[in-house]
């Protein structure tokens, strides 16, 4: 698998960013916990408890990043490349659950009128938390690119930065004009913004886990480019998905009469690699004429019934196989 190293450098950068963000948040959590116990501030202690969830989210993202760097071995031909998508999926679900708890608490306080809080410790914690969360978010954003795992962790940091900013505004309003309900009202708005942002990560992670075509590379575009290849008569059994953010493609190509299979294979791989950026391909050249596998066996009822008798894929005629990694 010659392409196994093409995405290693970005993943190394992502892993370093997660380590820095985790270190910052662990340090802030420790400092905040000590000050909370020494000062007896319940607000500080509550925020420290919330910080535990952030540390857990970053630790989960880092664990997924570490697994994603493990090489492919026998029986795990893609290694743990999807660990990052799984980590992003879990983190966004966790964040959605946290937002639901915040909304429930805010509505409960507004309903009962129990919105009073001490603004001074909230202001201090909010200011310190804003610095830590923005620093963590900046470091993640500059090194993560389109990495789903980084995006999941980044949303956690940005959500906390918004929360810290909201806490600062609420503390100022409460201390200056005694508007204590501002804390709960701002919490509702921030939760809505966070959920809106998290939806994009959850959607993309789900697409990756379900083997959908990459959002930046529609299947229609791929098919149109391939149909323009000289000497190609027909395409069928085309599958397009992504692993670890890299597009992967398999397809059956039928050459026009008189076209050498090797020439068609080379031209198709060139188009996929140079025009579309798809470097991990498996192309099968079919002889002109009937082919039993014109539809994916997974969705062909007749072929599905035949599978237990030997997993035959319906090809008894000669083919040329091309693999580009």
Structure description:
The protein is of the alpha+beta class and 325 residues long. It folds into 2 domains: 2-209, Cation efflux protein transmembrane domain (Alpha-lytic protease prodomain-like), CATH 1.20.1510; 219-324, Cation efflux protein, cytoplasmic domain (Alpha-Beta Plaits), CATH 3.30.70. The chain contains 9 helices and 4 strands, in the order αααααααββαβαβ. It has helices spanning 8-39, 42-68, 83-112, 119-144, 148-177, 182-209, 219-227, 261-275, 301-306; strands spanning 232-243, 246-255, 280-286, 319-324. Strands 1-2-3-4 form a 4-stranded mixed sheet, with helices on one face. Helix 1 runs antiparallel to helix 4. The longest helix has 32 residues, at 8-39. The model is unreliable at 1-6 and 309-321 (pLDDT under 50). It is found in: Membrane. The chain crosses the membrane at residues 20-43, 55-73, 85-107, 122-141, 153-179, 185-202. Its main location: membrane. Residues 219-286 form the Cation efflux protein cytoplasmic domain.
Layout of secondary structure:
Blueprint: H1 8-39, H2 42-68, H3 83-112, H4 119-144, H5 148-177, H6 182-209, H7 219-227, E1 232-243, E2 246-255, H8 261-275, E3 280-286, H9 301-306, E4 319-324
Parallel strand pairs: 2-3
Antiparallel strand pairs: 1-2, 3-4
Organism: Nannocystis exedens
Family: Belongs to the cation diffusion facilitator (CDF) transporter (TC 2.A.4) family. SLC30A subfamily.
GO molecular function, one term: zinc ion transmembrane transporter activity
Number of helices: 9
How much strand content do the residues show? 5-15%
Share of helical residues: 55-70%
The counted number of beta strands is: 4
Uncertain stretches: 1-6, 309-321
One letter per element, helices H and strands E, the order comes to HHHHHHHEEHEHE
The SS-based structural class is: alpha+beta
Strand line-up across the major sheet: 1-2-3-4
The CATH class designation of the largest domain is Mainly Alpha
What is the CATH homology-level superfamily of the largest domain? Answer: Cation efflux protein transmembrane domain
The CATH topology of the largest domain turns out to be: Alpha-lytic protease prodomain-like
Compute the gyration radius: what is it? 26 Å
Gap between N and C termini: 6 Å
**Overall form:** elongated
Domain Cation efflux protein transmembrane: 19-210
Family: Belongs to the cation diffusion facilitator (CDF) transporter (TC 2.A.4) family. SLC30A subfamily.
Keywords: Ion transport, Membrane, Transmembrane, Transmembrane helix, Transport, Zinc, Zinc transport
Domain Cation efflux protein cytoplasmic: 219-286
């Amino acid at each position: 698998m010659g392409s196994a190293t093409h995405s290693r450098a970005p993943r190394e950068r992502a892993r370093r960013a997660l380590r820095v963000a985790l270190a910052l948040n662990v340090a802030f959590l420790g400092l905040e916990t000590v000050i909370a116990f020494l000062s007896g501030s319940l607000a500080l202690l509550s925020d420290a408890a919330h910080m535990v969830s952030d540390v857990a989210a970053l630790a989960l993202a880092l664990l997924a990043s570490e697994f994603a760097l493990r090489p492919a071995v026998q029986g795990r031909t893609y290694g743990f490349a999807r660990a990052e998508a799984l980590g992003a999926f879990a983190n966004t679900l966790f964040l959605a659950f946290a937002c639901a708890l915040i909304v429930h608490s805010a509505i409960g306080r507004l309903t009962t009128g129990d919105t009073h809080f001490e603004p001074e410790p909230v202001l201090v914690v909010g200011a310190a938390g804003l610095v830590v969360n923005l620093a963590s978010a900046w470091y993640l954003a500059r090194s993560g690119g389109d990495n789903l795992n980084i995006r999941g962790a980044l949303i956690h940091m940005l959500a906390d930065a918004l929360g810290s900013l909201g806490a600062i505004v609420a503390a100022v309003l409460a201390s200056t004009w005694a508007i204590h309900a501002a804390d709960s009202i701002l919490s509702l708005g921030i939760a809505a913004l966070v959920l809106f942002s998290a939806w994009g990560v959850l959607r993309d992670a789900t697409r990756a886990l379900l083997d959908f075509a990459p959002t930046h590379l529609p299947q229609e575009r791929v098919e149109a480019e391939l149909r323009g290849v000289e000497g190609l008569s027909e395409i069928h059994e085309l599958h397009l998905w992504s692993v670890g953010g890299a597009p992967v493609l398999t397809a059956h190509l039928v050459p026009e009469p008189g076209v050498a299979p090797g020439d068609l294979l080379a031209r198709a791989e060139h188009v996929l690699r140079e025009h579309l950026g798809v470097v991990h391909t498996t192309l099968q050249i079919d002889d002109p004429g009937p082919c039993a596998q014109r539809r994916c066996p997974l969705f062909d009822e007749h072929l599905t019934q035949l599978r237990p008798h030997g997993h035959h894929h319906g090809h008894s005629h000669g083919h040329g196989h091309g693999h580009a990694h």
